[in-house]
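Q: Here's a chain of 77 amino acids. Please give me its 3D structure as tokens.
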Amino acid sequence: MVNGASYTGLDEVLDKAYPGHRTNGDTTLHFGPLAAIVLASETAKDFHFVSVPPGTILLTPLNTKIKVSEEAAMATK
């Protein structure tokens, strides 16, 4: 729930940099981060983005590296 709106996860986009581990013929486990996730919501019903199903949004992670001093890192241990 975000700002009172409920979202339903419809699909995930796996990051090819983190290949999965096949456990049997129809199951593959992925331990890496997702490349993206497709969400649907009543509040997004009028959204129409190119290459994304109507009424859905595609979220991709943003990575920002935050430098932590060695002192600060040791203080958290």
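Q: Can you summarize the key feature?
A: The two ends are 33 Å apart (CA to CA).
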